[in-house]
Predict the structure.
Amino acid sequence: MIAETVCSAVAAAGLGIAAVTAYRKRFLAATRIAAYSLVPIGLVMTGVVGWVADTAFSPAAWAGFGVLGLSWLLFATTRAVERRRGGTRRERRAAAKEAGREAVAPAASAPSLGPASRPAAQPASRPRKESAAEDFSDIEAILKKHGI
């Protein structure tokens, strides 16, 4: 009973604010405020507020929420352990069987590095780096700066 009264008061206040906003010629905002203020009345009329109020003060409902939470916790724990192990036992066996099979033509999947597939010579305008160590020196400096 009290929840319905509070929802009605909130809706009336919202409609009053919408009227003041419309008086200031901000009709779009006034319409939006009116829409939001009608939601509590709609919830009261459909009985949702009564159901929520009965649920909030019911020890059986809170016990049910606790059981649902425990169920979710157990499910999440088993999924985390499964990921850490690398999948279920069936998935691990299937992966082991796949790893045991050899490729029919192992050289067929290797890329061909013949003369036709080599990239064209780089233009002289781009200077080449002398070594790979110079490529990573700036990255190492940034990592050291951040303590990594």
